[in-house]
Amino acid sequence: RKEVEQDPGPFNVPEGATVAFNCTYSNSASQSFFWYRQDCRKEPKLLMSVYSSGNEDGRFTAQLNRASQYISLLIRDSKLSDSATYLCVVNLRGSGYALNFGKGTSLLVTP
Amino acid sequence: DADVTQTPRNRITKTGKRIMLECSQTKGHDRMYWYRQDPGLGLQLIYYSFDVKDINKGEISDGYSVSRQAQAKFSLSLESAIPNQTALYFCATSGASSSGENTGELFFGEGSRLTVL
After folding, report:
1. End-to-end CA distance of chain A
2. Do A102 and B42 touch (CB under 8 A)?
3. Are B102 and A95 in contact (CB under 8 A)?
């Protein structure tokens, strides 16, 4: 079983819509969580970290549910420029580990 | 100039050839990584290095080798390329917190697209 799982989508939504993605992780020892964004044929870039209490950055809200081992990303008032693949990333505790990436969820925002 | 630079950006080669992908960074980070990305499979970790003397295998290291020539340089080699190594390869760097934990932010190069015929 992949350690980090996401629905690949694609999610097709109209401009202005609210869309949410979920991501589940299998290792309960996971300690830190992130969402990355990847545009087509480009490198991934950090979108936001996910904090235990939940956090918001403009139109983007990230939530963590440790009991159920999932994180979510909510995008409000979708823009055409939000079209991209969103990668869920999980970090195990300890300095000896590298980050684990999900396969990504594809979002297409249409006019 | 990019903080993480990969060369070449595109390469077409034939089965059996030796290929080296190079990565250099100006971020001053100790931690460097090589990933490959295939459609539908996401990013898969090939090798990573937490300092110049440290090399670790990732999920899919078979058929690959790496060299950490300096803090700023981390190269990936395919000793005898095969068609299923056709992919987009990313180099990345990251910093560490004072406790040695990954900070969680990876800085990626623009990628090297490799085609093995």
Report:
1. 37
2. yes
3. yes
Q: State the Cα–Cα distance between residues A77 and B26, nearest whole angstrom.
A: 37
Helices (H) and strands (E) in chain A, counts: 0, 11
Lookup: tokens for B42: 């996401």
Q: Taking chain B, what is the end-to-end CA distance rounded to the nearest angstrom?
A: 32
Beta bridge partners of B5: B24
Place of tokens 């090939």: B46
pLDDT digits (tens, 9 = 90+) for B32-52: 999 999 987 888 999 999 899
> What b-and-e string marks burial along A59-86, b requiring 16 or more CB atoms within 10 Å of the CB?
ebbbbbeeeeebbbbebeebeeebbbbb
From chain B, pick out residues whose CB is under 8 angstroms from the CB of A42.
Answer: 110-111
**Cβ(A21)–Cβ(A8) under 8 Å?**
no
Task: Answer whether B106 sits within 8 Å of A99, measured CB to CB.
Answer: yes
DSSP, collapsed to helix, strand or coil, labels residue B99 as: coil
pLDDT of residue B105: 84
pLDDT in tens, B3-21: 999 999 999 999 999 999 9
Which chain B residue has the Cα nearest residue A97? B102
Residues of A in contact with B94 (CB under 8 A): 99
User: Which residues does chain A have within 8 Å of residue B50's beta carbon, measured at their own beta carbons?
Assistant: 95-96
